[in-house]
Amino acid sequence: MVSHLFQAPRLLAGGMLLMLITAGHASGQDVQVSNARLSLLPGEQPGAGYFQLHNTGDETAVLVGAQTEAFEDVEIHMSSEENGMAHMHAMEQVEIEAGERFEFAPKGHHLMFIGRLKTFSEGDDVEVMLEFDDAQQLSVTFDVVSPVSL
Ligand SMILES: [Cu+2]
């Protein structure tokens, strides 16, 4: 009898979390994502993800990673240029202050999609789960685009 009393609220909480994710919000963290696109290079080269984050909440949001069924691995990268040479390196996390917008854009921050597991082409959608430091996740649909369009 006692176990039933405890099970019911847990199931309810799970259902609510699912609703919040499908609505495009991480609960407790009002992060909105817009203009998400995945630039696809030919062959086995990694893809690059660009988007804008808007933290509409009143606490700092910390993006710590992402995952998708379409690629083996996703890393947060930052591009830089030294002596005319383009470099990029992986970042542990990106912080977005309350009320701030943060742009993942060409020649700056991007998600690096490594090891393609599925075939897709321009115009397709790729579902990506953004992960935050408080274990919240945000499901985002990326449009597959040509690098030339950026
Ligand atoms: Cu990169």
TrEMBL record:
Instruction: Write down the Gene3D superfamilies for this protein, in alphabetical order.
Output: PCu(A)C copper chaperone
- Pfam families from the xrefs? PCuAC (PF04314)
* Keywords annotated in UniProt: Signal
The family database entries (InterPro entries) matched by this protein are listed as: LpqE-like, Lxx211020-like, PCuAC_sf
Q: Where is the signal peptide?
A: 1-26
Q: What PANTHER family does UniProt report for this protein, alphabetically?
A: BLR7088 PROTEIN (PTHR36302), COPPER CHAPERONE PCU(A)C (PTHR36302:SF1)
Query: Know the name of this protein?
Result: Copper chaperone PCu(A)C
Organism whose genome encodes this protein: Vreelandella janggokensis
> Which lineage do the record's taxonomy fields give for this organism?
Bacteria, Pseudomonadati, Pseudomonadota, Gammaproteobacteria, Oceanospirillales
